[in-house]
Amino acid sequence: MKITKICCIGAGYVGGPTMAVIANKNPHIKVTIVDINQARIDAWNDPDASNLPIYEPGLAEIVEETRGKNLFFSTEIDKAIDESEMIFISVNTPTKTYGKGKGMAADLKYVELCARNIADVATTDKIIVEKSTLPVRTAQAIKSILDNTGSDVKFDILSNPEFLAEGTAIQDLLNPDRVLIGGESEDAIESLASIYGSWVPEHQILKTNVWSSELSKLTANAFLAQRISSINAISELCEKTEANVDEVAKAIGMDSRIGPKFLKSSVGFGGSCFQKDILNLVYIARSYNLHAVADYWEQVIILNDHQKRRFADHLISTLYNTVSGKKIGFLGWAFKKDTNDTRESAAIYVADHLLNEQANIAVYDPKVSNEKMQSDLNHLNTRTEEENSKLVQATKTPYEALKGAHAVAIMTEWDEFKTYDWKKIYSEMKKPAFIFDGRNILDKSEMENMGFEYSSIGQ
Ligand code: UDX
Ligand code: ADP
User: Fold this and answer.
1) What is the pLDDT of residues 362-394, one digit of tens each?
2) 260 pLDDT band (50/70/90 cuts)?
3) Does any ligand 2 atom lie closer than 6 A to the CB of residue 37?
4) 179-183 and 155-159: which strand pairing?
């Protein structure tokens, strides 16, 4: 099928950047990204590209170059579905918060709604592409809905998981390690492969069956997260033995079989994918009675929760076993640098723990608003909205967050944190002035020479 029009349902962290790059590299294809969220679509259409709903280095430039030419953002979902030959499903698949599989399984209601929407509206044959991360065999559910519409419209279903990481999304999309396409129909696979072929070398476009493709995405995220939990487990041992986790990571990473990436010990991984996908993997394994497999992967999450908790506990015990009424300055709230995304950010859980101990928290993050921080905390339902807003406040500058603070907690590895005037910060903090570097971004001896009591992860 010759593709001239693409529709993408879901204008989020995956759909937005992916489609912007596809449109940019395929000027002959009209790409329309649709979403039920009017405010989000309005933000994507904002003439000032610095107001886009998501922050990603390089994204605003690509959107500005392509928007209005062959890239469009709209809430007219039915129209975009009907006119397109290829439809990407790029909606969120959060962990279920109710019913069977609560807290473990992926909630597929948004995906199912999309499939039903397509089934209702489509009058011509379509290729449906699963872009959202989905449990193995979801394509079967989508297919069953689409095959039972009573019309003679034909649907081909492909799995095309997205491997971009936030903060480097545009670079990852422009230079992917691989593009993975799973499907049955050779024609449909070729149609999608030719779209990526506009900029991705053919040998990097991998074609598999649908189930391998779906499972590869979950497995890739599980392996990546496992590396972080592995090095974080070693970080705790380093703290007891005077080994330095960054030196250990470097030493093992030089073994070409291990490799140097994804070995940065931290306060714990966050983001919308790792925890959700591993829980999902665990749930699927248990549903097949594969308890040894499930227990194995679950440990990655257990260790990550432990890492977040022990960071907060260490802060409290160092501050003479009480943070009640003390001001703690947080640097960073996003789950990693160069994004405004806060989903599952370690900062949320560390803050929640400190708030239970009645701390006052002032937060500076270059890209996250006070509103977002409040909604992240309110979502946990630990205390009332009023209490959260009284105890936690975002500040406009880092110096405001740290002035008069008993301790600094570095939660995100934003580059700018390294360049602050740390002498000034020291002079304005309560003494002893403590730094808890949850990302190991500052120089220990430099900070100690300034007078700080500095502690980091695994050192
Ligand atoms: C991840 C996968 O990398 C990506 O391929 C997939 O498509 C989506 O999930 P993302 O969550 O956006 O991407 O970011 P990633 O760079 O993987 O970081 C995830 C978390 O792990 C962050 O909180 C990050 O700070 C943390 N991390 C990462 C570490 O603590 N140490 C590391 O060495 C690497
Ligand atoms: P991701 O990180 O997977 O991209 P996001 O939450 O950032 O997840 O984006 C998913 C988007 O999908 C949201 O903007 C949401 O409004 C949109 N969405 C969810 N369900 C539907 C639907 N049935 N039709 C259109 N858009 C939807």
Assistant:
1) 999 999 999 999 999 999 999 999 999 999 999
2) very high
3) yes
4) antiparallel
**Residue in 314, 386, 305, 296 with CA at minimum distance from that of residue 357:** 314
pLDDT of residue 438: 98
CB 128 within 8 A of CB 118: yes
* % of the chain surpassing 70 pLDDT: 100
In the DSSP assignment, the letter for residue 202 is G
266 in contact with ligand 1, CB cutoff 6 A: yes
Does this model's pTM top 0.85? My answer is yes
**Which candidate in 239, 273, 336, 337 is catalytic?**
273
162 belongs to the catalytic site = yes
pLDDT given for residue 1 in this prediction: 77
Ligand 2 mean position, distance from CA 335 (Å): 19
Site to substitute for ligand 1 among 252, 258, 274, most atoms within 8 A of C-beta = 274
Check: CB of residue 198 under 8 Å from CB of residue 26.
yes
Q: Distance between CA 324 and CA 321 in Å, rounded? A: 9
- Label residue 431 by pLDDT band (50, 70, 90): very high
Q: Check: CB of residue 364 under 8 Å from CB of residue 331.
A: yes
Which has the closest alpha carbon to 184: 160, 206, 208, 212? 208
Q: Is 133 left (phi over 0), alpha (psi -120 to 50) or beta?
A: beta
Please tell me which residue in 130, 162, 239, 413 is annotated as part of the active site.
Answer: 162
* Amino acid identity at 171: Q
Nearest alpha carbon to residue 32 among 64, 79, 102, 65: 79
Lateral strand order in the sheet of 86-89: 71-74, 30-34, 5-9, 86-89, 126-130, 155-159, 179-183, 205-208
Per the structure block, which two tokens stand in for 92?
Answer: 């969120």
Cα dist from 87 to 193, 282, 333, 374, whole Å: 14, 30, 34, 35
Helix (H, G, I), strand (E, B) or coil at 425: helix
* Residue corresponding to tokens 């807003």: 389
Distance of CA 19 to the CA centre of its chain: 17
Mean pLDDT of the chain: 96
